[in-house]
Amino acid sequence: MQSEVEQLLASLPAAGIDRATRLGLALAPRLENEQWRQLVAHVAGLARTATGARQTLTAWLGDALAYGGDRGRGLITECAEAAGLDAGTLRNAKMVCTRIPVSCRHDALSWTHHCEVGLAFSDRAEIERWLVVAETERLSTSALRRRVRLHVSSRGGLVPKRATDSSVAAFRLMRELRAVGRSLARERHSWRRWSPGAAQLALAELRSITSFVDEVRSRALAASTPIPRDLSVN
Predict the structure, then answer these.
(1) Is 218's pLDDT higher than 80?
(2) Residues 38 and 101 both lie in one domain
(3) Are residues 118 and 49 part of one domain?
């Protein structure tokens, strides 16, 4: 009887994939954009319907998204919705797959082992060293996480959690604002014809957004305005 991973491997299209394992996909070089997008959609569909093998499917999506590089702007959110996964999970998967190619992954380790290392380090030599440590010492994912965090902390590389949370929140807000901006651009022909009454209603509904824009503009102007010499502090 086939395992779920074996069933998923068998369901992958033959074209466009050089190698497929439980830890990732190596895509064929120079895939046409449409063929690549179809492959991403196919794997996202598998993730939506599969009952298990979540690590494998996340790794596959990470590899497919990493292959596309910057040409898939906005695709992560769309892909996450199609796959029933969190967009942040796919963002992390793409980073891990960019830093650790399929050929460098260790079969004896899990996808989560690779995530712990790939999210903590960008240097290839250091990544490989930690994967070897995890394999030779047979570390669990939690044990590897503790070791990696201790190592990074000893080098002064830990970002305070409060600062990290703030950065994540800012990133999410900017992503949502970009999505709103794209929607407004698409509907420009409509809202430019609104009546004065509709415009007033819109301003009332969007008071928090207009306050945000005013505050951001004020901060940006303050940062770009030179301090008069007679008011500067020596």
Answers:
(1) no
(2) yes
(3) no
